[in-house]
Amino acid sequence: MMKMRNIKMIIEYDGTDFCGWQYQLNERTVQGEVEHALKQLTSENIRVIGAGRTDQGVHALGQVANFHTSSALGINEIHKALNSLTGDDIYIKQISELNNDFHSRYSAKYKVYQYNIVFRPSPFKLRHNWYVKYKLDLSRMEIAKGYLVGKHDFRYFSAESDKDNTFCMVHSISLTEKNSRIIIQIKGDRFLRRMVRGIVGFLHDAGRGHYKPEQAQDVLNGKIRDLFFAPARGLFLVEVKY
Question: What is the CATH topology of the domain spanning 5-98?
Answer without folding.
Answer: Alpha-Beta Plaits (3.30.70)
